[in-house]
Each structure stands twice: as structure tokens, then as C-alpha cells.
Amino acid sequence: MKYSTWKTSQHMLTNTFEINLYKDRQFSSVPLHSHNFHELYLFLNGKAIYTVENGDYKLQPFDLILIPANNLHRVEILNSSIPYERAVLWINPNYLNSLSTPYTNLAQAFLDRAETKNYLVRDVEFSKLLHQKITTLHKSNNSDTFGSDLETQINLQSLLLDLSRYLSTQSNSINPPIINQTVNDAIEYINKNIDKPLTLDMLAKDLFISKYYLARLFKKHTGTSPYQFIIKKRLTLSKTLLAKGISIKEACFQVGFGDYTHYFRAFKQEFGITPKQYLNFLQNKN
């Protein structure tokens, strides 16, 4: 089996999907981040905790996590001496819509996760079947034989259809233990007001607690500060707007940045490229 080399970049190189199999030793934890595409994550081996927005999952082999676009998440490795193995599928929401029909919305699996906040499915038997589908998809996607492109699309649609059918009839999603009720309330407030002015003082006032206590609590349970959480969320949302054809300045202000220079610098620091370079990247993919 051919494994991919893990990269810190969170950019898709295509405008359709990417499928990768990873197996790493001495792997470092992945900091909180998000992206403007959906992610299917199948945990196969290791010892780790997966955080999505405001919930923690202590992973077990064949745990399946579905992460909708623009949801912040991270992985904390608890024992780096154990090989960390997983399969990861990234899929562009627009491409996913193109694979759907008026009667079969393949994006519903991810949309439901965003609505219910239940991101993990724990069903070993189903996940093993899905793993076979993922392996088949990975093989065809890396083939250059005649018809492999068509075979890959068929394999992808088959995988997503099986997933959607399963989720429409089963209820094996696991409610995550809330990180912390105060932090949970803070994240909910941020998500509802992301396009408005947000400060630590405002959060603390809304939650009736000290801003210093809130900052310490937030950092402890998410690995980042409230300020950085807000910035990361806004930056990812702005990438979604840019992909939809919204101008850079308009995207900047629509997601809550009050200053373009601040947005420009934050974007470059988070993604390693400028907003303009990201637009060029999108145009080259198309």
C-alpha cells in the first residue's frame, strides 16, 4: 500500500477531491485549523484525541469523523511511539454538489454533522467496509491506466452513496464530551457573531466571567486563544467567499475584519500566501 507524506499545508491542489493514506511515526500534534472543503477522516491506529469545534473524541480504531467545511479541528497525539495511521478524504463542496442529484444529496452527510454537532461515527463493521472502498478509490486515483479517471469517479460516488445511505438509516454518531461548558458557550457566541466586532472583553461580559479566567480556560481546552480562534474562523470563511467570486476587500469585511491590512497579514501568516496569491491559485486549478 502506498502511503502519502503528510504536509502541513491545508490547501487542496485540485478543485475536486484528494484522497491520502498516512502512516507516521513520531508524529507531532496538529494545531487547531479549518479549511473550506469537507473532510472524511478514518482513524486506523495510534493513540490520539480529535477535537472538532467544542467537543473532544478519544479515538478508537476505525472511528470515522466527518468534518464539514469551515469547522475548526485539531489532533492531539497522546503517544507518538505508536504509528499514527489514518485515511483522509478532502472534497470540494461544489464538486460534491455536482456528483449529487435533486433526489440524492451526497453533501447531506456533512451538512447534518454541522447541524447536529455530532461528528464521529463509531461502527467498526461499517468503517471496515468503508475502508475497503477508500483503498479502492485510492488505488484507482493513483492509476494511469485507460479509464482510471472514470473508474475513480464511480468509486468516489459509490463510497459517498454508501456513507449517505448508512447515515440516513443508522444512529451511531457519538455525542462528544463537551470540552468545557464555559468554552462551549464562548465558541457558540463566536460562531453566531463571527461577522460582527468580537473582543475578549465582549465574550467575558456575555459569559459573566473574568476575561483573564476565560483566556486561560479557552487556551487550556482548545490549544489556542479566543482571539486566534476568531481569526482562524474568519480567515477560513473568507477563503470560501473568495472561491465564490467575492472580491478580496469585500470578503475581508464580510467576515468581520475591520481593517484590510490586518486581514492581509493574518491571511499570509495562516496560509503562507496572500489573498491575491490564493485567488491566482484558485484560477490555476480551474
Sequence-ordered SSE layout with sheet pairings:
Blueprint lengths: L16 E8 L5 E4 L4 E8 L2 E5 L2 E4 L5 E4 L5 E5 L6 E8 L1 H7 L8 H9 L3 E2 L2 H18 L6 H22 L3 E2 L6 H12 L7 H8 L3 H12 L3 H18 L4 H7 L5 H12 L3 H11 L1
Antiparallel strand pairs: 1-8, 2-7, 3-6, 3-8, 4-5, 4-7, 6-9, 9-10
Helix pairs in contact: 3-4, 8-9
What is the strand arrangement across the widest sheet? 1-8-3-6-9-10
Summed over residues and divided by their number, the pLDDT gives a mean of 90
* Secondary-structure content class: alpha+beta
- How many individual domains? 2
Total beta strand runs: 10
Helical run tally: 11
CATH architecture classification name of the largest domain: Sandwich
Describe the structure.
- Helix content is 48%, strand content 17%.
- By secondary structure, it is α+β, with helices and mostly antiparallel strands.
- It has two domains: 17-174, Regulatory protein AraC (Jelly Rolls, Sandwich); 181-285, Orthogonal Bundle (Arc Repressor Mutant, subunit A), CATH 1.10.10.
- Strand 4 and strand 5 form a beta hairpin.
- Helix 3 (124-141) runs antiparallel to helix 4 (148-169) and helix 8 crosses helix 9 (248-254).
- The longest helix is centred in the middle third of the chain and has 22 residues, at 148-169.
- The model has no long low-confidence stretch (mean pLDDT 90).
